From TrEMBL:
Every J domain range: 71-154
UniProt-recorded name of the protein: J domain-containing protein
Species per Swiss-Prot/TrEMBL record: Perkinsus marinus (strain ATCC 50983 / TXsc)
Region (Disordered) location: 1-38
InterPro entries given in the database record: DnaJ_domain, FN3_sf, J_dom_sf
Superkingdom of origin organism: Eukaryota
Length: 254
């Protein structure tokens, strides 16, 4: 082989380097070492725990910096008054996904602080909910009851109706039921509880018996009388809904 060819084959330029062709093995190692660690950590459970801990610490520090005299909206981080109970519950659920003793399983030293912060948030949410419910109940009297009707069950008259259409905005505490006929004194059948007398399908019922209230027997023997129903709350009664009742002749008592 000619000497010139041997010199070319023996020179460093004549060999292909296994590390990438530039003859510098250290550069390949250097490229591998500068991969960003954050990208790998975000894919590992350890990275996720680190991110959750960061969110937990942010909320913990925010709540712990608030004075004891801070209002419930400050504690919940609300920037404007909530318009509904559902909005408050949604905010509390979102906060509890970050600040909760269960979120400190891998960081037991934060469990106590997270528990205290969660209790403070929960108390603040309950306070706002009570204010909203009180405001809904006292904002205005409820509206008129809907679909007032009746049916007979033996010798008992069952009067039923549906709550006012605005019941979600103006809470109803009770219903006043009065029966009357021409020439007789109106007879109050009682105050029907809004919660305890509502059926599963949304009807409110009141039973009127001829032997129930004093004077009911006269109404039943007249066979035609009127029943009125008012929904009420702490602000007062709503409009009156009236129903005309026509009974078939009662069988004579033996």
């Amino acid at each position: 082989m000619p000497p010139m060819v041997r010199r070319r084959l023996g020179s460093p330029m004549g060999k292909r380097d296994a590390t990438g062709g530039d003859g510098n093995g250290a550069s390949g190692k250097k490229r591998r070492m500068v991969e960003p660690e954050g990208w790998l950590n975000r894919l590992t459970p350890r990275g996720r725990v680190r991110e959750e801990k960061s969110l937990l610490m942010v909320e913990l520090e925010r709540i712990e910096r608030l004075p004891q005299s801070a209002g419930p909206m400050q504690i919940l981080g609300l920037t404007r008054p909530p318009s509904s109970v559902g909005e408050v519950k949604k905010k509390l659920r979102a906060l509890s996904k970050v600040v909760h003793p269960d979120k400190t399983a891998n960081e037991p030293h934060l469990r106590g602080r997270a528990g205290e912060a969660f209790q403070r948030m929960n108390s603040a949410a309950q306070g706002v909910i009570k204010l909203l419910e009180k405001g809904a109940a006292t904002a205005a009297p409820p509206g008129r009851v809907q679909q007032l009707t009746y049916r007979m069950e033996g010798e008992v008259l069952i009067v039923q109706w549906r709550p006012p259409a605005d019941v979600n905005r103006r809470a109803v505490s009770s219903y006043r039921v009065v029966a009357s006929a021409p020439g007789t004194t109106p007879i109050e059948q009682g105050l029907v509880s809004a919660q305890g007398s509502t059926t599963d399908d949304g009807w409110v019922e009141c039973a009127i018996s001829s032997q129930g209230r004093r004077g009911n027997d006269i109404l039943f023997h007249k066979q035609h009388f009127q029943v009125s129903v008012n929904a009420s709350n702490p602000s007062g009664p709503g409009p009156t809904a009236q129903l005309h009742v026509y009974l078939r002749p009662l069988r004579p008592c033996v």
